[in-house]
Amino acid sequence: MAIPLGDWVLALDGSALPDKALIGGKAWSIARMGALGLRVPPAFVITTRACAHYLHEGSEPASLAREIAAGIAWLEQQTGRRFGAGPNPLLVSVRSGAPISMPGMMDTVLNLGITDETEAQLAAECGDAGFARDTHRRFLDLYAHIVLKSETALAANGHPADWRNAIAAGAGESVPDAVEEQLARAVHAVFESWNSRRARRYREHHDIPHDLGTAVAVQAMVFGNMDENSGTGVLFSRNPLSGEPLPYGEYLARAQGEDIVSGKHTPQPLEALRTHLPDVHQELLTAASLLEDAGGDVQDIEFTLEKGILYLLQTRAAKRAPRAAVKIAVDMVAEGKIDPSEALARVSSEQIRTLLSPQLASGAAQGAEIVARGEAASPGVGTGVVVLDSDEAERRAANGEAVVLARATTSPNDLHGMIAARAILTEQGGSTSHAAVVGRALGRPCVVGCGAGSLSALAGETVTVDGQNGIVYRGALDVVTPHENDDAALRQIAAWAAHQSTVLVTSEHSNGASVRFDENIEQTEALIAALEPGATVEGALFANDDKAVRAVIAAGAATIVTSPALPALLAAAQAAGRE
């Protein structure tokens, strides 16, 4: 067991793995990496139970401040540094961590613990006053946005006193002087982000319960912005776009993790790290292989280099594009890493529907005008009218209009527009940015890094987005609809699903009596209630609605006729797998 520091806080010493429901996925991954002997900055975790108490009672548990102080004392002991003091100051990150991965949905504060005093001490320690000043600005910027809910912009070459004054003027309150108060407020902000609009929309879209709550991981900072041998990056143990069994990632020198995730900076391919620091690159690949084997799934790994030393910050099962999800599931069965039942659990009906959705017809792009190019971040084809605002995208989509959301870069506050859009475009960022990760999770075609100022002129125009090749075409291009039997990997998924399913799912119309369903929800409920055991049901509804599939199975249906059949077949197999 990790070291308990009271009723609400655990120190993650790598001795064991506490329940993920208690400590959240981020802290669980920290504990697991430590248990595997990998180099991880020390951390403690405030549990999901503390979050539930805070959200229910409107205040933190009485003993939480004392337990957090004990956690900080433990970090000081582990690092030989002091929080809010010198000569070697300890700075910490404050990160959310739900039991189920919700990438980019909740809040993070980095570099907490820096003050005018500790900035000077950090500068003296590393011999670089510019690095220390940059770290101070980064903290104030995140604290203002996340905790004080201020949009105040801080000039890169300013002074901390000017930054603090600007924040106070914009937010109506000042950044607290005491680092202990800063930490408490940051923890509360992470708790509160659990019920943010974007987080609730994400959970509703993915059928994640609202009552899980988030843990808060407090981890000693390492600095990717310290020198030329420092940097940050994201590594996938397999390609999350294609599913190819090759490492895939991005690296940004002299940067911190938020620089990549936010999409405000466009990183380099991971090859840049291999060229600059080949030994560190190999150490990273070895760790990725170890973590994939231990987790039995593709890993999404965040890492930081400080003065050429590799630190792993977190790992989680990677979000992957629909094509990659199918290929990885089939490949991992062939490799003996998972069984067919687990493979079926890792592919969603929504991903199958995306794969069977329209694609560019052969020759359709020949002669078409290209209006933007960028990095392919999530495959597929989407056609719609370009809109530049997420609220507008949601509103117009609700009125039946096909829209493409184009932004300079997306943030968690754009989730509702991303859900509504047929495709997503950004001017900045790379294939591990927020837009790319969420686009893959939603199965939306996505092209990122199209260039500053490249998309605003497209507002109001109809475009076709090719997420596979990173190209945006003017107008609506011709598309074709793939068939589920034309792909070997889909045929394999179908064979496993047919074996596991307790009902027959087919696209062949029945010659006998059947009950026909349409999209009318009132009629659907009445028809389900009247079903007799062994009934055959028909309708396009079942290809598009997993809940309807589960409902008719529960009511006793023996055969489901729909086209395409595979999404409904997979839903039926997954229902049987849960029994």
Report on the structure:
With 579 residues, the chain is α/β, with parallel strands linked by helices. It has four domains: 1-221, ATP-grasp fold, A domain (Dna Ligase, domain 1, 2-Layer Sandwich), CATH 3.30.1490; 223-320, D-amino Acid Aminotransferase, Chain A, domain 1, CATH 3.30.470.20; 359-480, Glucose Oxidase, domain 1, CATH 3.50.30.10; 484-578, no CATH class. It contains 22 helices and 27 strands. An eight-stranded mixed sheet has the order 15-22-21-17-18-19-20-16. A hairpin with a 4-residue loop joins strand 21 (462-466) and strand 22. Helix 5 runs parallel beside helix 6, helix 12 (322-334) crosses helix 14 and helix 21 crosses helix 22. It is globular, with a radius of gyration of 25 Å. The two termini are 31 Å apart. The model has no long low-confidence stretch (mean pLDDT 91).
In a nutshell, what does this entry contain?
By secondary structure, the chain is α/β, with parallel strands linked by helices.
What keyword list fits this structure?
single chain; 579 residues; alpha/beta; Dna Ligase, domain 1; D-amino Acid Aminotransferase, Chain A, domain 1; Glucose Oxidase, domain 1; 4 domains; eight-stranded mixed beta sheet; six-stranded antiparallel beta sheet; 22 helices; 27 strands
Give a topology summary.
Layout: E1 3-4, E2 9-12, H1 20-35, E3 43-46, H2 48-57, H3 64-79, E4 82-83, E5 89-90, E6 92-97, E7 108-112, H4 116-126, H5 129-146, H6 160-171, H7 179-193, H8 197-205, E8 215-220, E9 231-236, E10 248-253, H9 257-261, E11 268-269, H10 271-276, H11 278-295, E12 299-306, E13 309-317, H12 322-334, H13 340-345, H14 349-355, E14 359-360, E15 370-373, E16 375-378, E17 381-387, H15 390-398, E18 403-407, H16 415-420, E19 423-426, H17 434-442, E20 446-448, E21 462-466, E22 471-474, E23 479-480, H18 488-500, E24 504-506, E25 515-516, H19 521-530, E26 536-538, H20 541-544, H21 546-554, E27 559-561, H22 566-578
Parallel strand pairs: 4-5, 17-18, 18-19, 19-20, 24-27, 25-26, 26-27
Antiparallel strand pairs: 1-2, 2-3, 3-8, 6-7, 6-8, 9-10, 9-12, 10-11, 12-13, 14-23, 15-22, 16-20, 17-21, 21-22
Helix pairs in contact: 4-5, 5-6, 12-14, 14-22, 18-22, 21-22
